[in-house]
Amino acid sequence: MFPDSSRRDRWVAYIHDLQDEICAAVEETDGLARFREDRWQRAEGTGGGGKTRVIAGGKVFEKGGVNTSVVFGAVTDTMRKALHMEGHTWFACGLSLVLHPLNPFVPTVHANWRYFEIYTEDGQLSDSWFGGGCDLTPYYLFEEDARHFHRMLKAAMDSFGAGLYAQYKKECDRYFVNKHRGDECRGIGGVFYEHLRPADDADWERLFAFQQANGNQFIPAYIPIAAKRKDTAWLPEHKYWQEIRRGRYVEFNLVHDRGTLFGLKTDGRTESILMSLPPTVRFEYDHRPAPGSPEEQLLTVCRHPVDWV
Amino acid sequence: MFPDSSRRDRWVAYIHDLQDEICAAVEETDGLARFREDRWQRAEGTGGGGKTRVIAGGKVFEKGGVNTSVVFGAVTDTMRKALHMEGHTWFACGLSLVLHPLNPFVPTVHANWRYFEIYTEDGQLSDSWFGGGCDLTPYYLFEEDARHFHRMLKAAMDSFGAGLYAQYKKECDRYFVNKHRGDECRGIGGVFYEHLRPADDADWERLFAFQQANGNQFIPAYIPIAAKRKDTAWLPEHKYWQEIRRGRYVEFNLVHDRGTLFGLKTDGRTESILMSLPPTVRFEYDHRPAPGSPEEQLLTVCRHPVDWV
Lengths: 309, 309
What we know:
Chain A is of the alpha+beta class. Chain A has helices at residues 6-30, 77-83, 143-158, 164-175, 201-216, 218-229, 236-256, 258-265, 270-273, 294-303; strands spanning 36-41, 47-56, 61-74, 89-101, 108-119, 125-137, 177-178, 184-185, 189-196, 280-282. Chain A has ten helices and ten strands.
């Protein structure tokens, strides 16, 4: 069906290795819960499938998923219209993860690394690109955690270009925004990039290495934060605030997130896409944290993104 | 700014009276909580405002809102694109309500009755229409409640045309659907209609009377069901299921609902729009009720709409 598969095969192999590594690190941090794996195939007329790995009811992670998918198909009218896609057929492979901790002092984390190929009607590769990102959504702000997370993301990028982190940090701050909430960011950001198109073979190798550097940095960027905060004592009022903020997470993912839209519009597997939604959520009319409270402090950095490095 | 206001004034007066009546009936049924009213004005450059009335923490109603708004403005590019609106300026007035009961055996209810006018650049009325609807979202199915609710909605419509209920019942079943969940309806439906355009003055009077008949039927259609089920004993497992189904309510409202979209795209008041979201919600990966359980029975009627009359 498609031309030379060597690029795709290498990316798929990397993504599956990374899935194994991240799941192992998450299970070790949790110390109780184990991932459950669901392998799925897309419906007839479409192609590919995925490995959805979900964790729930852990000591550290209340709910989470570390999913991979390798999918392909025809570019449909819906995709042309809703996603502005061109071409005849497409291939996409990526890893997408969200971890929702039980403890309100441990931040939620999201990451995604993906690779697309687009083909003409006669099966020629007409376009390809990498995309990715990783961002943190704390419920209470620990500045040292925010700095650690951003510094680690920056370190992974620096050898590929001095300005990359600054650029992709800004794109992240622009992307994960609840516009209907007065431009309130979902959390304290991270990095986000899309449409990194290889100019030639050497450039593809460079971008593949860039993706691996970012993907491999997830564990050292996030896991130490979870490990450090997981035993912090919390009260019902902290859980309450966590659930209010999780409501904003739901709003972003269902109203604004292009990844969710892509999945739902391409007849993706709904359960795998919506594993990103938090386990318990609270929607309260016009909730406002008390002036000067730690809750308001978090809101302030969501409304006014900070340069953490 | 706009031509003859007598139609608008009569509709606005009706909607405000209905808001008072419904709020009084809801408070009486609850027996504890009272509505809190927030009057708001739209930001500069736009016009109008609303009366948001929210109830929370009641004996019967865990969260709810009975909101009215009277808003107008210029048709923006966003509205042309996202909402396929035409014309130069618009006026909209409606009542929108959602009640989320505490007890999982009491159904959630939603209703909305609205009137739009569209004007040309020189201030001439170029289009106007009524829309409305009322639908029930139970967590456990009581067939007698479903029949009562639908019979009452039908009774309000029958004198305006023998086939209207059947037609608008079908439109409701088509509208409140989570397409991404394999065409699962949000609940057991009700009625839904849009773009009822008056042909002339007499027709406007007829449609206004139709709207009033439907609006006035809300209290006898819903309140007796809430009163009958509010003291039913429930267990944590019933609450759990209610919160899972509330998750589907969130998914519909944020992914599919045109009313929510209209509000968010026209810079509506976010807190008033999103008061529709349930107070506590649960998202669980791949939740499936046990075969033959009451939970599965509910799912069956959501997947295969029933003719309740």
